[in-house]
Amino acid sequence: MYPFIHIGPLTLGSYGLMVAIGLICAFFILRADFARRGVSADAEAIIGITGLAGLAGSRLYHLLESPAEFFADPWPQLFSTMGFAFVGAIIGGFIALVFLAKRFRMSMLLMLDAASPAAAMGYGIGRIGCLISGDGDYGIPTSLPWGMSFPNGIVPTTERVHPTPIYEFLVAILIFWILWRLGARALKMRFPNGIIFAAYLVLTGIARFLVEMIRINPHSFYGLTNAQAASVVSVLAGMSLFVYRLKASRKDIRA
């Protein structure tokens, strides 16, 4: 594992490097989505602001999962490069996109629809950073032939464990493909705004719930991990949004 990459006197964190690559890929995807929708908006600024908001939200959510430890010595932990939470990234990114939709005078749901494929791809690439750095996001021990050990990782283990970041990367690529194709169909069939974002909430929620079953995380809510509980909320929210937008669309057609 390579938590840090050394290029002469320069030292780069492998996780941060992959997050940056993920944001660059997300920028190109969002720009392409705006182009096919005929939307005039600054994709670079949107990705930059949303990415920073997602990282901040991810970090804060992780810290507030252990509030007593955080408030005992907040400043060193606040600016540490270790410890991020998927749920916090979603919340931070969502808040930023809502703000940016108003800034660019776009429908909030249109903005969320356009950003969903980009978010799926960016997240998947960021997970490769977790794999390379060995930051503890791996799963439980396994005897499967593709099991991996992380003896030199940030959170080392000599046991062969499930390489869950690889699983999440592959699923993220699949979710991106589904959302991109669904977006093309939505434009052709004139689906109401919000359908793509609803699919994103459902698919990412299911994916995260399942991968948590083989990850090493404490259980809190009715035997679920924090991420699983949030995933259930994500799936329910996505299904509710899907039904709501379809009903609203049918009312508009009747009117």
Describe the structure.
The longest helix has 29 residues. Helix 5 packs antiparallel against helix 6. Strand 1 and strand 2 form a beta hairpin. The radius of gyration is 19 Å and the shape is globular. It starts with a strand and ends with a helix. The chain has one domain. A two-stranded antiparallel sheet has the order 1-2. It has 255 residues and is mainly α. The chain is built from nine helices and six strands; from the N terminus they run ββααααααββααββα.
The parts where pLDDT drops under 50 for at least 5 residues are none
Note the overall shape: globular
| Helical content (DSSP H or I, runs of 4+) | 55-70%
Could you say how many structural domains there are in total?
1
Gyration radius (Cα, Å) is 19 Å
Report mean pLDDT, rounded to a whole number: 87
Q: Quaternary state, please?
A: single chain
Give the SSE order as H and E letters. Answer: EEHHHHHHEEHHEEH
Largest sheet: 2 strands, antiparallel
State the strand order across the main sheet: 1-2
User: What proportion strand?
Assistant: 5-15%
Return the structural class: mainly alpha
DSSP summary: helix tally: 9
Quantity of strands, as a count: 6
Key phrases:
about 260 residues, mainly alpha, two-stranded antiparallel ribbon, two-stranded antiparallel sheet, about 10% strand
Topology:
Layout: E1 4-7, E2 10-13, H1 14-37, H2 43-64, H3 67-72, H4 74-78, H5 86-103, H6 108-133, E3 148-150, E4 157-161, H7 164-189, H8 195-211, E5 219-221, E6 224-225, H9 226-254
Antiparallel strand pairs: 1-2, 3-4, 5-6
Helix pairs in contact: 1-2, 1-6, 2-5, 5-6, 6-7, 6-8, 7-8, 8-9
